[in-house]
From TrEMBL:
Pfam (any one): AsnC_trans_reg
PANTHER family from the UniProt entry: LEUCINE-RESPONSIVE REGULATORY PROTEIN, POSSIBLE TRANSCRIPTIONAL REGULATORY PROTEIN (PROBABLY LRP_ASNC-FAMILY)
Molecular-function GO terms, alphabetical: sequence-specific DNA binding
SUPFAM superfamilies: Dimeric alpha+beta barrel, Winged helix' DNA-binding domain
Alphabetical UniProt keywords: DNA-binding, Transcription, Transcription regulation
Organism per entry: Lentzea tibetensis
Gene3D superfamilies: 3.30.70.920, Winged helix-like DNA-binding domain superfamily/Winged helix DNA-binding domain
Record protein name field: Lrp/AsnC family transcriptional regulator
InterPro entries reported for this sequence: AsnC-type_HTH_dom, Dimeric_a/b-barrel, Tscrpt_reg_AsnC-like, Tscrpt_reg_AsnC/Lrp_C, WH-like_DNA-bd_sf, WH_DNA-bd_sf
DNA-binding recorded as keyword: yes
GO CC annotation, single: cytosol
Upper taxonomic lineage: Bacteria, Bacillati, Actinomycetota, Actinomycetes, Pseudonocardiales
């Protein structure tokens, strides 16, 4: 269901996307409403499922996984009985940052972060290509990955 946001709700969401750690009084000031109004609106956005969570942005190099890649995977057969378990498997891998089920020649794009290129090679060969349902894998190293906030 599509959530309709008025200008205040949209401003709250925009500011929290920039900095999810904003204190209510600071958020209220940024969106030009009273703190009591802001806390009610913020709670309502969570309850309506517009705001689904908060996360910490991590410097991947600082945690030992500076090499990122997009692994494009085609599976066969492309059926619900195969797709759902495959998605659960990929999401269970510690190297997986994000998973997208897509249209086109590939079925999935898997954003991964690893320690080095040798780790990436082991991941592709030991965790993807050895699976029965995987028909094809293409791996692209990322030179940089910039996430838009707000």
């Amino acid at each position: 269901m599509f959530a309709v946001l008025d200008s205040i709700d949209a401003a709250i969401v925009r500011e929290l996307q920039k900095d999810a750690r904003l204190q209510n009084k600071d958020l209220a000031e940024l969106v030009n409403v009273a703190p009591s109004t802001c806390v009610v609106r913020h709670r309502a956005l969570r309850e309506r499922g517009v705001i689904t969570g908060y996360h910490a942005a991590v410097d991947l190099a600082a945690v030992g996984t500076p090499v990122q890649a997009m692994v494009a995977v085609r599976i066969r057969p492309h059926t619900r009985d195969i797709v759902e378990p495959f998605m659960n498997y990929v999401l269970s891998l510690p190297e997986t940052l994000a998973l997208s089920h897509v249209t086109g020649p590939e079925d999935f794009l898997v954003h991964v972060a690893v320690a080095d290129v040798a780790h990436l090679q082991r991941l592709v060969l030991d965790r993807f290509t050895n699976r029965r349902e995987v028909a094809e894998v293409h791996t692209n190293l990322l030179f940089s990955h910039i996430r838009k906030h707000g």
